Amino acid sequence: MTLLQVPLLVISGLINLFTSTGLWRGSGVDYNATCQEIAASVSPASKVYYYGSPQFANDTANWSFTNSQNSTCSFEPTNAEDVGIALQILAKKRTPFGVKGGGHSPNPGFSSTLGVQIAMRLFSEVVYDENAQTVTFGMGLVWEDVYSALLQYNVTVVGGRSFGVGVGGFVLGGGYSFVSNEYGLSVDNIVSLELVLPNGQVTNVTNSSNPDLFYALRGGFNNFGIVTTVTMKAHPQSLVWGGLISYAEAEWDAFNNATVNMVSTVTDPKAAVYISTDYVVGEPPVITAILFYDGPTYPDGIYDDFLTIPSIEQNISTRTFVSLASTIPLIPSLRLVTFWVAVEEFTLPMLEMIQNQTLFYGNLLTQSSAVLISYDLVPLLPSLYNHSEAPSAFPSLRGPDQGHSFIEIIYGWTNESYDETMIQAGTESAAYMKQFAVDAGQNVSNALQYPNAAAPGTPLVDMYSQAALDTLSLIKIAVDPLDVMGLAGGWKF
């Protein structure tokens, strides 16, 4: 019997039982008592820390100040069994908790809490299996840790582009990579996951052992328990060519022509470009491109147009994969919000529109403490969604109406009183750009948003199809009838 075959009458009865007896939600919970019970119950290697210790400071630090809270304590588990013990105590006490890998989500409460902060940083092993051609690694890592560990084996996995991004949320949310044209999304490359279920039991989830959970975890985040390790396909990795090149505003027209020429003619899946149009307060506007070719040299012609344009900065060479990733500028810790717009292709009018949006909102929002207004463009091939061997929660739809390229908007500011102003402005800009694409004949009116880049308050149906939501809700109730994972933040089914 699969999880989806659990009788709805039984599930309904469980819900009525828990709500009528007061087990569904707690009140007046002593969070500190929960911390103490966890500390007394887990193995000596796993630790609970409190405010004032360096471990607590590290465990509760997040990339974005919009996703920062003062936890009562932090808990650093060293094994899945201790995670299970903590979950059982949290469920019994009805204590809110957060699960943090890299802490890179900007959305409020997604990896933070006022209760118990579970920091996964000690799940840090990277194990390459040459025979199986897989890599197993812990959810406490950031991507540069994984890439660096794999250099000696000349393999890689489908992971994040930038330094500082945690593997956990990235993998469980979808995962667009420099090598996605070749191999698909991160979720398309997952072989298995070690999962601590909400009742504390530890299980290994594969497509054959539990197809329902395998589907749900790939794009469904932390709704079904806490993933401690993931096993992904390993792919051969030679030296790569590329790096950073940036241009002043006077060269944007030439850059636009080079971009349109590339995205309209190049079908080599080893070639990629990542473009960022940035307005930084106190500095002139700039376009930065990360050129990438999955090989030591690129075929003649692919990037020639970009390289002939006068640039203000250039750091391009044949190098390791991790060296190339290191050239991507890091966004500083600010109050942050992101938005997502799917497109089919980047045309000349669209590029000009995006640059106008950058300048318009850059000038406008500096009055509201804005420091960074960034519009990031990622062109990908139409075959992007053809790499999956099994359905996934995200992307739950993989048809031609989902777009295959995208724009990610990133706004950064300093003053909390302008939070709503920034969210409203980004929402307006994203809606305008989507309508611009639709009016230009692009088939993206029903394209789903990427959950890892969707703004706070985005309706679930805008990120998952209704059929997927119905399925995910059933799986959620079957594995978590007490809604233990509802005590943690994030998108909730």
Keywords:
globular, five-stranded antiparallel sheet, 493 residues, alpha+beta, 18 strands, 22% strand, 31% helix, seven-stranded antiparallel sheet
What does this entry look like structurally?
By secondary structure, this protein is an alpha+beta fold. 31% of the residues lie in helices and 22% in strands. It contains 14 helices and 18 strands. The chain has helices spanning 8-20, 31-41, 54-60, 80-93, 143-150, 167-173, 180-183, 211-220, 252-265, 304-308, 321-325, 348-365, 419-439, 466-479; strands at residues 47-49, 73-76, 97-100, 116-119, 126-129, 134-138, 155-156, 190-196, 202-205, 226-233, 235-236, 240-248, 271-280, 286-293, 313-319, 335-343, 370-378, 405-413. The strands form four sheets. The protein has a seven-stranded antiparallel beta sheet with strand order 15-12-14-13-17-18-16. It has a five-stranded antiparallel beta sheet with strand order 5-6-10-8-9. A hairpin with a 5-residue loop joins strand 8 and strand 9. It is globular and about 65 Å long. The protein starts with 7 loop residues before the first helix and ends in a 14-residue tail after the last helix.
Helix and strand content put the structural class at alpha+beta
From the alpha carbons, calculate the radius of gyration and give it in angstroms: 23 Å
Q: Strand order within the widest sheet?
A: 15-12-14-13-17-18-16
Strand content: 15-25%
